[in-house]
Amino acid sequence: xxxxxxxxxxxxxxxxSALAVFAREGYRxxxxxxxxxxxxxxxxxxxxxxxDKNDIYYYAVKLVTxxxxxxxxxxxxxxxxxxxLDRIFKIFKDVLDYASTHDATVSNLMEFMLSxxxxxxDFSKVIEERTIKLIILLKRLLRQGISNNTIKKCDVExxxxxxxxxxxxxxxxxxxxxxxxxxxxxSLITSYLEFLKA
Length: 198
What we know:
Oligomer: single chain
CATH topology of the largest domain: Tetracycline Repressor, domain 2
Radius of gyration: 19 Å
Shape: elongated
Number of domains: 2
CATH superfamily of the largest domain: Tetracycline Repressor, domain 2
């Protein structure tokens, strides 16, 4: 009897193999043959799941951001004594830790976005669609902190965007600069959050 294949499991295997190839070869040099070889799956089978390497990358962004948001929701609404600012800091630190640990993947994402831009595709909209939940989560935490008098009254829209831009800027620096200073980034967010304390 043939073995039943879990399609989502197979897609994740192809995706993780592709990310390994992207990290090793760079996005531009990667191709479906290398990805198929890395995953131990035939190239025609890879085509059953993805049209091309761009399709794999879009899937990876969707999957990774989905998993990350679940973690951030758990941090934001955990039943403990953390203030809303503590929770925002933990989310920021988690993003930073993920980006630092997966710096090759973040660099390849940047390379991918630049290649898509050259083809006339604005990939930033895809990223924004995938990260809008984080901005909404930040707004909810800010509003709750204002309501609980742990955060001083502020323009929630502007502050949530500023926090998101800080996170985005750090991820960009991880992707582009080998000299990224994680401690300086932590210090920056700590200072910003300290300013928001009621």
